[in-house]
Amino acid sequence: MRKFPYGKARSMPSESAKQRRAQAKLDYDAFLTNCPSRQLLARISDKWVTLILAALGGDGPSAGAGGTGEARPLRYSELSRRLAGVSQKMLTQTLRSLERDGLVTRTVTPTVPVTVHYELTELGSSLQELMWGVKDWAEAHMDEVLANRDEYDARPA
Amino acid sequence: MRKFPYGKARSMPSESAKQRRAQAKLDYDAFLTNCPSRQLLARISDKWVTLILAALGGDGPSAGAGGTGEARPLRYSELSRRLAGVSQKMLTQTLRSLERDGLVTRTVTPTVPVTVHYELTELGSSLQELMWGVKDWAEAHMDEVLANRDEYDARPA
DNA sequence: GTGCCTACTTCCTATGAGAGAGTAGCGGGT
DNA sequence: ACCCGCTACTCTCTCATAGGAAGTAGGCAC
């Protein structure tokens, strides 16, 4: 396993993207505290990130029979309405960090009042597929979890 | 879409597990604040949950060429060592909630000192596959994200 | 007795999530 | 002229919680 001091200039120019990602999997280990991938994992393991990506992904590959699974850009206010209960602060904060990490693009249109669109990048799309699966799992297995909780709480201490 | 007041006794006895899950996906919507699936999503969208499941899943389906992808039970102390940087409090807390939700089982062996094993349930395994994908994504795309961050930070405000 | 082991539990403090109000800049109503 | 309202934030305050550190039970070795 190659070991880097987590600096820059890590990839060889002749490697393919796939090769580089395979190499990255060996270089990075999210089980380690100081590995950057631990921080990245912490960032994406977040309910708002999951919901934002799911929303920008157009409700995912299923969405019943009519779902196209196509990504579609959303305005700030649309996201705010879709993600019920999110504070403006958290929404802005989360979107900024997703933008910084290259998962979404932020497009300002100078109408009046100004409108801002957020859209998944290709990188964001690749994660969105996973995140949609997570959201879907939560919805699909809710009953099972609820039943387990009842059983657990009912059993003698 | 059937609407429930999020009470108990939700499933019809004659439905198959698959049918029930499909129905659950319609009943529950993690985009809504008060939906229990929102809480469940928040619970599983957590770095420690991801790492615990990944660890109990035996490093996932890849793990290079030798990985079996087989789940294997781990002791508390083994988990504590594997998840570098986790506090005992968080580990215990997270394991308890996973146990309550029926994702892991807790087995106490009355040796001296006592040993406790944690193992994935079938339900936990189904989520572990997703979570492993998330951890894997973080490690595989770390370089891309790092590059995006550099670019973002370098560009004029 | 003293120390050590595992698997916790308790206490304290710093971080950060969320609620609520404030801001810029312009258009539209009266 | 004046006030309102709209979008997309930004600021401030408060309360919850994550994490660090230290304490606990109970038994075996020395």
Describe the fold and architecture.
Chain A has 157 residues and is mainly alpha-helical. Chain A has a domain at 46-154: Orthogonal Bundle (Arc Repressor Mutant, subunit A), CATH 1.10.10. Chain A has helices spanning 17-27, 36-44, 47-56, 76-82, 88-100, 122-140, 142-154, and strands at 74-75, 104-109, 115-120. Chain A has a three-stranded antiparallel β-sheet. The termini of chain A are far apart. The interface between A and B is large, with 67 and 67 residues. Chain A binds a DNA duplex (30 and 30 nucleotides) through residues 75-77, 80, 85-93, 108, 111-116.
Q: Could you name the CATH topology of the domain at 46-154 in chain A?
A: Arc Repressor Mutant, subunit A
By CATH reckoning, the class of the domain at 46-154 in chain A would read: Mainly Alpha
How many beta-strand elements of chain A? Answer: 3
Please provide the ordered H/E string of secondary-structure elements of chain A: HHHEHHEEHH
Strand percentage of chain A: 5-15%
CATH superfamily label of the domain at 46-154 in chain A: Winged helix-like DNA-binding domain superfamily/Winged helix DNA-binding domain
**How much helical structure, as a percent, in the residues of chain A?**
40-55%
Shape of chain A: globular
The chain-level mean pLDDT of chain A equals: 83
Count of individual helical segments of chain A: 7
Supply Rg of chain A: 19 Å
Question: How does the major sheet of chain A shape up?
Answer: 3 strands, antiparallel
Return the structural class of chain A: mainly alpha
Largest interface, with Cβ-Cβ < 8 Å?
A-B, 67 and 67 residues
Q: How is the largest sheet of chain A built, in terms of strand order?
A: 1-3-2
Low-confidence stretches of chain A: 63-67
Distance between the termini of chain A: 47 Å
Give me the CATH architecture of the domain at 46-154 in chain A, please. Answer: Orthogonal Bundle
In oligomeric terms, what are we looking at? Answer: homodimer
